[in-house]
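Deliverable D2.4 — example input (structure tokens):
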């Protein structure tokens, strides 16, 4: 049985019409878009949906997020990334999360995501103190149940955390530094073996809807052999290799102090850049870095809400576009942006870069922002042959909005209203692989009320454990505060807090 959406306003994001709405009908068979045009085939057995007063567009791709932060939503404020990480990514004292709680956390994260129009997640999953297959199985099981499409990682840090930033270790008590450095860490070989097994274990999961990806945390947090090996393994499996790079000014200083160059150039030198690589953030990139990323066809996931919340800076949006670097959009984690909902990210991306300079002709267009939220994210996830636009042969991952709502009143330019006016309240249906996973604002695949009730019952114990771990990790705060302020005062050749190039002193 096929599904036909008749005579809707459609944003296809294809090469012909892009983000310009056009009146189209869509025929969906076996989870794929079989026809799209002014008219399509109709059969007696078809389920026909009236598209009048409806806007249909591709599902959104959240190109960088951390579902594992879901339980820490709304806990922190006014902390820059390196200080925030002391509590949200604790160095000491965290106990392994049981798989049943990982599954509950992942179910809730997926529910909130799909209800806002996210059909594909690039989920950089990290567990503390380390990840095992029982925990990873729980994430795959949860996403299989909800019906979302996802790349799911084994995130890894294999250097002592106090040695992943400059200066801080010298200001820590020696016994604290020794305790951190004595903790067991994965070798490159152990992580690559784990990942090779994950590719075997999850191959074809949910008909290919769920895929494993590699996620070395960052060049300063992983050994060179792990970074290069992860890049090679990703190419072997045509999987994404997802790396945090140049998220903060501290990381720009780290590249210079650790490697005598930028972190992007270091990755290039060790063979850790490829068309399968996505850099999360990429704020403090130099012009030379951006040219290198374009040369290697590397993608960048832009996370404006999280970057603003953590005071990390403003990514060079126009410079990336001009260089031909593919941009996706990400919410980042629920502990740094406090939401997995991509409509907020889309609007923030469209607005943020209007304040980085007076040249209004360089400001983001609605088409560019929607492209990043759909095709750009799909390309970064290595899923662009299947999702990101509404075209014949692609997966039927799509959103249906009600145009009779206040968000679309008066009905003017629907693409602009989708970016600036709509916050998810007009979303009526979400389809992933031809299956309706959201109908009239409710997820059809799980009992959301039961999930919320379970979390409420367990929350006191969860929060008590979070409080305990946070207290234990305050021991690092003073040293990391000094490190952060020292790095903030240094000249790294770019000034990404305003998005403008750093001023050059006379004679330089």
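Example output (designed residues):
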């Amino acid at each position: 049985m096929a599904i036909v959406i008749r005579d809707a306003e459609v944003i296809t994001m294809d090469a012909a019409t892009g983000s310009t709405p056009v009146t189209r009908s869509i025929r969906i068979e076996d989870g794929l878009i079989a026809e799209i045009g002014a008219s399509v085939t109709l059969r007696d057995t078809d389920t026909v949906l009236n598209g009048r007063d409806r806007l249909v567009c591709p599902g959104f791709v959240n190109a960088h997020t951390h579902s594992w932060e879901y339980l820490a939503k709304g806990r922190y404020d006014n902390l820059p990334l390196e200080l925030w990480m002391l509590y949200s990514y604790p160095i000491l004292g965290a106990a392994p999360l049981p798989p049943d709680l990982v599954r509950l956390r992942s179910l809730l994260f997926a529910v909130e995501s799909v209800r806002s129009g996210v059909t594909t997640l690039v989920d950089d999953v990290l567990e503390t103190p380390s990840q095992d297959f029982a925990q990873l199985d729980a994430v795959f099981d949860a996403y299989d149940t909800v019906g979302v499409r996802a790349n799911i990682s084994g995130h890894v840090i294999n250097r002592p955390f106090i040695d992943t930033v400059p200066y801080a270790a010298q200001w820590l008590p020696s016994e604290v530094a020794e305790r951190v450095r004595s903790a067991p860490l994965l070798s490159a070989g152990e992580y690559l073996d784990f990942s090779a097994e994950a590719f075997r274990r999850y191959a074809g999961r949910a008909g290919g809807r769920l895929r494993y990806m590699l996620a070395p945390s960052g060049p300063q947090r992983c050994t060179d052999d792990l970074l290069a090996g992860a890049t090679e393994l990703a190419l072997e499996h045509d999987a994404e290799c997802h790396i945090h790079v140049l998220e903060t000014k501290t990381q720009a200083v780290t590249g210079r102090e650790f490697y005598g160059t930028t972190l992007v150039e270091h990755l290039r030198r060790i063979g850790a850049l490829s068309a399968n690589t996505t850099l999360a953030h990429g704020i403090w990139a130099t012009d030379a870095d951006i040219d290198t990323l374009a040369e290697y066809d590397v993608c960048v996931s832009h996370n404006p809400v999280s970057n603003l919340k953590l005071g990390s800076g403003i990514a060079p949006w126009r410079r990336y576009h001009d260089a031909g670097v593919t941009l996706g959009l990400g919410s980042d984690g629920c502990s740094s942006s406090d939401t997995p909902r991509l409509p907020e990210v889309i609007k923030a991306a469209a607005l943020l870069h209007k304040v980085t300079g007076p040249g209004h002709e360089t400001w983001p267009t609605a088409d560019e922002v929607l492209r990043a939220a759909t095709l750009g994210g799909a390309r970064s996830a290595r899923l662009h042959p299947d999702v990101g636009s509404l075209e014949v042969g692609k997966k039927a991952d799509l959103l249906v909005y009600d145009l009779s709502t206040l968000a679309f009143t008066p009905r003017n330019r629907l693409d602009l209203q989708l970016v600036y006016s709509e916050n998810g309240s007009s979303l009526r249906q979400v389809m992933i692989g031809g299956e309706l996973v959201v109908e009239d604002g409710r997820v059809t695949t799980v009992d959301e009320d039961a999930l919320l009730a379970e979390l409420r019952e367990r929350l006191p114990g969860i929060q008590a454990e979070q409080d305990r771990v946070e207290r234990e990790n305050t021991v690092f705060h003073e040293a990391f505060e000094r490190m952060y302020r020292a790095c903030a005062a240094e000249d790294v050749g770019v000034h990404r807090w305003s998005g403008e190039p750093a001023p050059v002193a006379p004679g330089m």
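The two ends are 69 Å apart (CA to CA).
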